[in-house]
From TrEMBL:
Residues 99-233 form the L,D-TPase catalytic domain. The keyword Membrane does not apply. It comes from Methylocystis bryophila. InterPro entries: LD-transpeptidase, LD_TPept_cat_dom, TAT_signal, Transpep_catalytic_dom. The keyword Nucleotide-binding does not apply. GO terms for molecular function: glycosyltransferase activity; peptidoglycan L,D-transpeptidase activity. Pathway: Cell wall biogenesis; peptidoglycan biosynthesis. This is L,D-TPase catalytic domain-containing protein. GO terms for cellular component: extracellular region. It comes from the Bacteria. Belongs to the YkuD family. Keywords: Cell shape, Cell wall biogenesis/degradation, Glycosyltransferase, Hydrolase, Peptidoglycan synthesis, Transferase.
Length: 236
């Protein structure tokens, strides 16, 4: 009911779908990963890479971003499965260019470019119990936003109460450099597409409602996404 799309890349045909939006202790990584038990269960996905194996054009995509309000360091790409590097792929869809499609089963976010192409980003997604699907839209967007834990998180994790009035923007803020706030029927869903500086979360289900992209990828998507852009979240 959401879309009828298929990936036409030959190299995609051999990729297996993997089971798969922000919570935890009072530091950036723990908020995203959840409880200590969740941390213990989390493992790196895919195969390891070395600097010599990373193409220069990929390294350039994920290099440092020094001119930001809070300078962003380069991504440690050895912690990212190469399948999750940003790339342009064939993606047949009836959706209009500019539509964002979240595919939690495969840990991807697509931005429809038109002519059967899409920009594909590796992502982290919701952990079991918090997965959802349906149609939303970008109701607002922000650079280096203040993060305020929802009351549901504070109820689950009382240590988050210290940020009930908001955590200022910065590298330690769980929303990172850019965020797209997802709305339905004029109301904020409490879910976002946000930026993460934790590369080892890409390709995992770790959040409780949000979808995270590497900071460099999120800046790229953010610049191409106006308010009211359609967002489709596929079933996991």
């Amino acid at each position: 009911m959401i879309m009828d799309a298929r990936i036409a890349d030959a190299d995609e045909q051999n990729e297996q779908a993997r089971l798969g939006l922000c919570s935890g202790h009072i530091d950036r990584r723990s908020f995203l990963l959840g409880s200590a038990a969740g941390l213990g269960a989390l493992g790196l996905t895919g195969c390891a890479t070395t600097d010599a194996m990373i193409p220069p054009e990929i390294a350039a995509l994920y290099g440092p971003v020094p001119n930001e309000k809070f300078p962003i360091p380069a991504v440690d790409l050895k912690k990212v499965d190469p399948r999750y590097f940003r790339r342009t792929v064939r993606y047949e869809s009836k959706e209009a260019p500019g539509t964002i499609i979240i595919d939690p089963a495969n840990y991807y976010v697509y931005r429809i470019d038109g002519d059967g192409n899409a920009t594909r980003y590796g992502a982290n997604v919701s952990r079991p119990g918090f997965l959802w699907s349906g149609e939303a839209y970008v109701g607002r967007k922000a650079e280096w936003p203040t993060w305020t834990p929802p009351k549901e998180m504070i109820a689950r994790q009382p240590e988050a109460r210290k940020y009930a009035r908001g955590m200022p923007g910065g590298l330690e803020n769980p929303l990172g450099a850019r965020v797209l706030y997802l709305y339905q029927n004029g109301r904020y869903t409490v879910c976002t597409i946000y930026s993460t500086s934790d590369p080892d979360t890409i390709g995992t289900g770790v959040t409780s409602g949000c979808t995270g992209l590497l900071s460099q990828d999120m800046i790229h998507l953010y610049a191409r996404t106006p308010i009211k852009s359609k967002v489709l979240i596929l079933p996991a």
